[in-house]
Amino acid sequence: MANTNLTKAKNAKQDEFYTQYEDIEKEVRAYLEYNPDTFRDKVVLLPCDDPEWSNFTKFFALHFEDLGLKKLISTSYAPDSKQLKIGSQLTLFEKESPQFDPTKTQIKGKIFELDRDIDGNGHIDIDDLQWHYLEGDGDFKSEEIKALRDEADIIVTNPPFSLFREFLAWILEGDKKFIIIGNMNSVTCKEIFPFFMDNIIWYGCSISSGDREFGVPDCYPIDASGWRIDENGNKYIRVKGVRWFTNLDHGRRHQPLSLMSMNDNLKFSKHKELKGKKYQTYDNFNAIDVPFTDAIPSDYDKPMGVPISFLDKYCPEQFEILGLSQIGCHDKLPDIKKYNDYKEMRCSDNQPTGSSGGKTNENAVLPGKGSKKTYYLGSSGEIVHSEYKRIFIRKKQ
Ligand SMILES: C[S@@+](CC[C@H](N)C(=O)[O-])C[C@H]1O[C@@H](n2cnc3c(N)ncnc32)[C@H](O)[C@@H]1O
Q1: What does the angle CA 122 – CA 124 – CA 129 come to, to the nearest 5 degrees?
Q2: From ligand 1's centre to the CA of 218, what distance in Å?
Q3: Which of 110, 132, 263, 343 is the most exposed place for a label (fewest CB within 10 A)?
Q4: pTM of the predicted model as reported, rounded to 2 decimal places
Q5: Atom of ligand 1 nearest to the CA of 138
């Protein structure tokens, strides 16, 4: 019970990370570089937003004309429905509007729309945004927001962390183009990885390493490292492992990795694990293990296990994705004993613990106290070649 409450509290906090303007701008620019008409004549929906102060709304409203948008719609979630009670964050914009209602502001979501020049200054811009309260609380799963999804061509947002999978499924159900930001680890869950494998979803362009700064509400308990408060008293924290997820094309994903042959890697690799050694093979299936993306041999035609970070460099014209260890997404792997036969074990203080899939093997003897490595156990309980999570790929023929 205590654990459930802790998880809830953690999720509630992570659902309230606000994206910085520069991060949105950099990502959108990457699509425009590839195709300047990416947003032309499109209806863009920004759900799960807080339009009065969101940088998503600000960016798309300010660039309405140069992006060539047809319509911008942005919706927010009612403060009373949010898991983290962030208190009243009323802006002057709302308070001074004729439609301001002190009750509705707590229990209703809001919708902001932009599609024409209201103030007659000859431009469609942020000053032409019109708003009103929604019928409901702005929950993306509601019929009201679903109807907006169906009207939209492209959905852009930072969805609540705790509902990332559900949110992505919601977008795909509507068959929409999207750019959303989330935790890179989401890729390894069985609901998402198959879409990466089939080139239906890929990572965006502008974030491939390091951490990013997000705004957090005033009430946010600053108990993490890497936070700051700016001169206006706004709080920010740095978050690791963030990626854009998208199904809009961009240039980076069509740039093949520049790689050395297997022989050259073994002679000249900068990695001590490879230089003068050889590529390990798995005990239980026919693939080589490549511990670093830049050490993928250019001339090897069979399956290879590579780190998850390979996806930051993945070019679908260069490689095909065959599967992922630990989940059953490996239908394309030929002549290989399926990974389903293996159980993932994590080693923590020498105590075998179950995998995320709840698999355990009580008899496992795990080497290396405190090791963070993941071990695969053969179906008869033996420890087979131990490695981190791996994506299995093969050079495109
Ligand atoms: C990660 S924040 C991002 C906010 C904004 N898009 C940004 O980046 O600045 C996610 C937002 O979704 C809201 N939210 C949580 N659950 C929601 C739901 N079921 N439907 C709609 N919005 C929700 C949260 O309250 C929060 O405001």
Answers
A1: 130
A2: 16
A3: 263
A4: 0.87
A5: 21
